[in-house]
Design brief:
The structure holds two protein chains of two kinds. By secondary structure, chain A is of the alpha+beta class. Chain A contains 17 helices and ten strands. The longest helix of chain B has 21 residues. Classes of the chains: A alpha+beta, B alpha+beta. Chain A: InterPro entries: CHP02677.
Chain lengths: ~500, ~375
Amino acid sequence: MPQIDRLNMELLKPLDEARYLTAENAARYRVILRFFYEQHQRLRYWLYKEDVFDYMKQFAVFSDYTIEKCEQDLNALSQWKNLISTQDTTKAATLEEFKNKKFRYQLSPYSIEIERMTIRLESLSGYGGSLEPSLFERIYTALLKIIDLSSSPDTAAIHRWWQDLNGDFESIYHNATDYIASLQSSRADELMKTEAFIVYKDRMIDYLRDFIKDLQRFSSAIEEFLKNLDEDVVNSVVEKLVEYELSVPRIDRIPEADEVRGEIKSKWFNLTGWFLGYGGDESEAYRLFNVTNEIIRKITRFAARIAESRSRTLSRKTDYLKLAAAFAACKDLNEAHRLSAAAFGAFNTRHLAGEFERATESITVGVWDEKPCTFKLKPKTRNYSESGNTGAVRDCSESKSQKLKEYLMSLEQEREILEGLIFQNRINLAKLPEVEPFVRITLLRWIGKAMGSRNKTAKTEDGRQYRVIFPKDHERIWLKCTDGNINMPAFIIEFEDVG
Amino acid sequence: MEELHMLLENFWILRDENREDYYRIRDAQGRIKLFIEEKLGYRLVINPHMAKLEKVPGEAEAWMGIQDFKESMDYAFLCLLLAFLEEKGPEEQFVLSNITEYIQATYEGYEKVDWNLFSHRRSLVRVLVFAEKIGILKVNDGEQERFSEDRTTEVLYENTGISGYFLRSFGRELGDDINPDILLEGEWLTGDTERGSFRRHRVYRKLLLSPAVYSQGPDDQDFLYIKNYRNTIQRDFEENLGAKLHIHKNSAFLIYENSSRDKSFFPDGSNISDIILQIGGLLRKKLDEEKLHVKPDDTIEIPESEFHHIIMECRELYKSGWYKSYRELSPDKLIQEVMDAMESWKMIVRDKKLRSVKILPMVGKFTGEYPENFVKGVKTHEE
């Protein structure tokens, strides 16, 4: 007799989130969601309809695509809960941006899973994952083994190593990005606004700080290691992996060596790229670092706001409105000034100041009966100079102006030297001759200043806009200086063309 | 001492703008609190955003207002802006048209707000510039000054979240009838109504903030207090502010050491300050020549026209030492400027009905002279 299972009620519900795969316009929907997924992997969680539209337009298939259609598609996907739409709450930098603040869209957790599934399906290749600090360490130690392994005959061991390494990497790739996505979601924002959040705040920040520390420590170590890794070592390990793959008995079909090699190499490229950056872009590790930092900042800000609203007194709106009416009714400006003094208090004090001496302490003598205090006035005319005064004063001012002159001259000289380093609007640190310490100090100050800004731009002291460009291949150089050398990335400082 | 000066010379000290001073004041609060609370009866507000001493005047005077403001409407707009900001969270953004719409809808005055009028736009611009300067809002994008020329100008703002602290606390909700006396009255009624402590607070505040405290007559209790407690008062101000107390028959002055960090002091070396010192000298001379007479209350009362003559005489005598802009000022403008300045410094009082001017005792405390070689030089030059 067949056993009667209890029916899982969940199974009775249709899965709306999967509708996009089979709907009439599935072609468009799938491309859109794949685009979202790809951006999601790059830690770009929020997209605007313009982003989607621009992306779609580049394909010939969608040449008749319009922004209206795009909006409809995004609405449909939002209705099926594939996308979560929220009104943009980030700060606008310009008026234009503020006016155009519309909806922005984020992948729903279901869609992420469905997309992952479709990707696995395509190549026959959990939201709420957590960051695992030890992962970076494991990857680092695993990578260190590569040198020994390259000369090891044990291909099976190499294969195991490869599997573990990839497993750990996937964990970072998926879990870390998911975790951060959930922290960046609008629900998290809501949560952070509640008082209950204060309790979790410190733990959460500790956790993220640990993560950042770990990321910083190991990602730069990994980066350094990968950069200096001998190509031959990699190739020999790849060959051994290929050898192993081919030696595994298979029933279905025997893969070509080139195919296996290609797959392994692309995985390796992905892994190294995550730490080194793909083709000159910022590395994903670096971006993750920034994003985590930003989240910590956000958490602290929200917490401060909650603490403040607790202690904040009542709204003073009615007081302000009543005062506004009282001010509007003032007969003249002086009356309003006096009302202001009573309402807001004085803005500063007003006093007699200086060498007012008195010959008496009497409190019964009238002011006019005493000798007044006489002030020496300085004529305001240009042709009056204090030439009649003592020479000592004049000498001092002369040496002062001499000092000032020298100082300005030296500033001018320094400016000229720096100017001489610019070639085709750029200062290429790799190509600099031995420089004086002030040049190094100035360059480091400029670089530091630009690092603080999002697009790595800043202005020099004399107001020129510049941008700091990272070396493409992470090249490092020694900047030679008369008082010592410094090892640093081969930055390029590019000045905005003023002409 | 230094910290108390900072608190007195600034409306508030914002942590984000001036960390160093902010922390200095925070660290010093133990030292300065006693004087502030006991003698002045003030509240020192220190929170994570700012340090602020609410400088409630003993007597509201016109110069204590916001000197950038030119119309009472400016103040009304400021209050509406503050009300508008109460509804916004910290860092929340909005645009200028949000403000203009709000003000237009809520303003209650004799006339309606009409942004087509240059004067109304100009008034709002003064308020916005002040609001940015004092730190209650930030401009993210756009030029607010352009609004006075072009009413379609848009500006992106951000609320800093401190507007709620701008108004001092009254400890009660405001009634519908609002005037300076009522606002200040609360000061003397809250806490213990014992004469001693609230009179002390009022007297200390008058001396602390104003250039001069004048006796209103033999029964003026505040002035009697100053005379009776002069030793304590002198010591308190000396210790806490390095200031000296001069008490005369009918007037009392707190005199600061000359310090350029202060926002407003006399004489400050400006041309108008020179002119006032010179007028002081001229008045002295006329007293010596018995052309003028001091009344028993230590004031000199003369017809307005005579005062105008004195200003013109001063101009004839000394203008060679003035800036060109003052030399070339028309007599009317010059008279206006000198009298306005002297009035706001409590040096003269005008009686508009009698068309007379009362010269107050402060003017007797000073005269000004050019260096001898300059005077000689001028004379030889003229000869």
